[in-house]
Amino acid sequence: MTYMSTATPTTELAGKKIIVSGGGIGGASTALALALRGADVTLYERHEEFKEVGAGLQIGPHGVKILEKWGLGDKAIQAGYLPDDMQFRDAVTAENILTMKFDETFRERYGAPYLVVHRSDLLNLLVEAGREAGADLVNGVSVVGGEENAAGDGVDVTIEHRADGSVETVSADLLVACDGIHSVFRPKIVQDEPVPSAYVAYRGTSDLPNDPDMQGLNSVVGYIGPRCHFIQYPLRQGELLNQVAVFQSPRYLDALIGGTDAPEDWGNNEEFKNAFGHTNDFLQGRLGHMWLDQWWQMADREPLTDWVVSDHILVMGDAAHPPLQYIASGAVMAMEDGETLALYASEAASEGDVDWGSVVREVSDERAPRCGRIQTTSRFWGEMWHVDGVARHVRNEAFRQAERGGWFHYADWLWNYDPARRDYVNDPALGELPEGLKDWEYNIHKIQRQRDAGVSAEDITV
Ligand SMILES: Cc1cc2nc3c(=O)[nH]c(=O)nc-3n(C[C@H](O)[C@H](O)[C@H](O)COP(=O)(O)OP(=O)(O)OC[C@H]3O[C@@H](n4cnc5c(N)ncnc54)[C@H](O)[C@@H]3O)c2cc1C
Fold first, then answer.
1. What is the pLDDT of residues 435-447, one digit of tens each?
2. What pLDDT score does 6 carry?
3. In b/e form, how buried is each residue of 183-206, taking b as 16+ CB within 10 angstroms?
4. What is the C-alpha to C-alpha distance for residues 251 and 269, in angstroms, rounded to an integer?
5. Backbone angles phi, psi at 243, to 5 degrees
6. For 118-168, how does the pLDDT look when each residue is reduced to its tens digit (9 = 90+)?
7. pLDDT tens track for 101-110
8. CA 29 to ligand 1: nearest atom
9. Given a cut of 80, is residue 1 above it in pLDDT?
10. Ligand 1 centroid to 56 CA: how many Å?
């Protein structure tokens, strides 16, 4: 399979002024996708530089297809690594329970390979390509507000220059808020809070070629175990090893069950030291490679069914759908958002004057159910990784069966996606979990429900 190294820009959105708030992977993708259709795009990022915290990102074929469309397929693959497969292992015994091969059959089915890439490398590619396509990407400016203009045909956006605190208003046809999980604009749709999962992630990168225990690693490997998991994969053509260690924080869980405030540093180094004692020796030996100076308390939000702030303001990326990371699709969803908006807007422009109110609603109707399903499935998938006791043995057998009997049908809905088909507009019920999982309840909800019903801390079932 070969990939285009340049996209073919078009001009449907020429003369349309679009402001993007936030220069993470979501905002940079959106700016690029719109600029490739000829829009006059300005992106404001509050930080002085474009940067990502953390290291590796898994980009499934649903994301690689989009990079390809944007002319970045080759560059992203050169910057990253194409693993042969993904291997799930039981974290207690290290037994391999499922290998998902990313072979030619996989690539043909999903139209692209499975890529792993350093976050900063991907962001740099998107920023560079956005600029080449004509977008103006500006650092050190926060978007602090936005209102429909008096004529009702656009938006007045308030920006603050961080260097001197000066504030000004700029006008646009559309404002796209890709400003992350603590978005300025999401509260205009819903007043909700992030939902901590009680799990915390430690990350780390290290030299791969000179690591004697990791020679020949060409897979994404996930050790899944009771209340924890551990992921490894190569980056930068095998020069760098990416590792992520995730575990349930006992102190956060106790606070949640007891109805008290969790300590701010839940998941700290003390908890990390004790979290993997029940896992295999190899895994425990790898923990010394993790960064200890920061850790990530994992949280998502409840799925949002409507992303439209007003006819000319839309939220996207983590601002609309922050997920748990278990099906590795948060950044890919944000890329899909950008491509969907650019596609629907350019189609509308080809048919005449763009009615932005209709465009943003159509984007929301397509994207909200899809991303809701990814968020909910991520919660379910994470719980399945972390089970203990008899459930762990049943899970392991289900994984072995999936390898024997074929696993594609579990993944088709996720990886075989094309926004041009408008699958979710046509059938919003696709956003729900499959019938067999309808009565599954997320553990955090289950604990909260029992607490709300007055069940005492000792009697709460986790
Ligand atoms: C441990 C972990 C592993 C993950 N692994 C994967 C994976 O393998 N694959 C995958 O697809 N996803 C993964 N994700 C999810 C993915 O990282 C995120 O979903 C994605 O990066 C979100 O991008 P975003 O641009 O929407 O938001 P953000 O990355 O949060 O970017 C928002 C940007 O907006 C800026 N901003 C905020 N407010 C303002 C403002 N008022 N004005 C201007 N700028 C503003 C911020 O500075 C920031 O740059 C993982 C997440 C975690 C935590």
1. 999 999 999 999 9
2. 64
3. bbbbebbeeeeebbbbbbbbbbbb
4. 12
5. -135, 140
6. 999 999 999 999 999 999 999 999 999 999 999 999 999 999 999 999 999
7. 999 999 999 9
8. 25
9. no
10. 13
- Residue 5 reports pLDDT greater than 90: no
Pocket-forming residues, ligand 1, beta carbon under 6 Å: 21-27, 44-47, 57-58, 142-143, 178-180, 184, 201, 244, 296, 317-318, 325, 328-332, 334
Specify the pLDDT at position 401. Answer: 98
Mutating to test ligand 1, I would choose from 19, 20, 45 the residue with most ligand atoms within 8 A of its C-beta, which is: 45
Q: What is the pLDDT of residues 13-27, one digit of tens each?
A: 999 999 999 999 999
Residues in the chain: 462
Q: Which atom of ligand 1 is nearest to the CA of 47?
A: 47
Quote the ligand 1 centre to 25 CA distance (angstroms). Answer: 6
- Give the mean pLDDT of the chain: 97
Using the atom order of ligand 1, give the atom closest to the CA of residue 184: 41
pTM of the model: 0.97
CA 39 to each of CA 155, 319, 373: distance values in angstroms, whole numbers, following the listed order = 16, 22, 31
Return the amino acid letter for 201: A
